[in-house]
Structure formats: C-alpha cells, structure tokens
Give the backbone structure.
Amino acid sequence: MVVGRNSVLEALTAGISGSALYVLERITSDDRVRAVLKHCAQRGIPLLETPRAELDRITGRALHQGLALQVPAYSYVHPDDLPARAQRLGEPALVVALDGVTDPRNLGAVLRCVEAFGGHGVLIPERRSAGMTSGAWKAAAGAAGRLPVARATNLNRALVGYRDAGLAIVALDGGGVVEIGELELATDPLCLVIGSEGRGVSRLVGDTADVRVRIGLPGPTESLNAAVAAGVALYEVSRRRAHPR
C-alpha cells in the first residue's frame, strides 16, 4: 500500500500501476484528491469507497489522509543495473549503499537525497535492512517511483563487484581520516556506503572500502542518522563534481 495524499499522487504521476484506490467515505477533497481521482479515471484504476475503520485496518493505522493505493510488490533491480544506468546516461556512477539501516523512513529519505543530488540508485542488503514499504514510499516523496533500488544477497560481495567494475568504495565513518568535502575520489565513479547511526558500517564492509571519510561535526552531536548523513555527503560529492579542483 502507498498511503497519504502526496505519496499516492506522486506514485501515480511517476507511472506506478495500481490495482485499486481505497478512498475514505465522505473524504474532504482538495487539489491532490482531485488529481488522484483524475489519474485513476484515466487509467481505469478501480475506486473503492471505504469506511474509516476499514481503511485504518488496511493501512495498518498509518496516516493515510483518506487515500491508499494498492500497488504490485516493489520490483528491485540487480546491483549491476545501478552503474549500468550511469553508463547509459554518460555520467560517473554515484550509488549509495546502506549497511544495517533498518528504518524504512530513513531508506525513503535517503532515496530522496540520492535523486536530489543526481545519484543513480540505492543498494540495500536482503537481510537486516529496511525494504521498500509504504513508510519508505511516503518518506521518499515521489523519488521511489523514479529512482531504482537494488537488493543484494551479500552486500560485501556486491561492493567487491562494484570495485572490480571501477567504482571507488567510500565508507562514511566518524573515524575516517579524510573529510568528505576533501575527497579527491568524488569526481570518479563511486559507491558511498552509509551505516546505521549507532553501529556505523560493519567491519567487513569497512575493510572492503577504498577510503573511509568523515563528516566534520564541530558541535557536541557525535553522529547523524543515515538520511541526514547521506544528504550532507551527497551535497559535498555533487559540489566537487560541479567544481573539480
């Protein structure tokens, strides 16, 4: 289920196919609701008027704002598809891999950051990781319909494959010796690995990295959550790419 007025509208605008739209009985309409209904009418998506109690049950009591779109199971791509996408666009690859990030809202927010800063996709492991749930869709604010997510059975093996294909593996680590803003590899094809706020990247993934970088934090806060860290790091990479030294 994709739930919430903005999320449903963004999914439909991105061309995501829906099998049914659940609409709250006597919903208070606005421009978003009218646009959603127009999309569904044009594409023949059935409308199911639903009592509030049933809509709450269907959505797991999420903040649905009166709309829930039933969509097919999310289609993950193969890890190799992400650098291949960059190659088709004629751009140096920029992939973000998440290591141990289990909050779907963080995954969705990372997707939004990756799209905003010109990245080519997000790589996640199959196990011990957030997946593309309705919460991730909502946090991605439309990016989930436009940016691919790959899933690897073994994250470290996928990263080794990226390195063999010419991508630099850059792990974000509070103990890194290089500040992200000074990363010379920023203009090269790269995969930026971000761990959880508590654990950071795993030892095995950290050992695989070509370089560990840090975000300078002059204040008393010791760490940032994955989505905030991704936004800061991707900004610095995009800045270096726009103005190489």
Observations:
- Residues 10 and 94 are 24 Å apart (CA to CA).
- The longest helix spans residues 226-242.
- The two ends are 46 Å apart (CA to CA).
- The first strand starts at residue 2 and ends at 3.
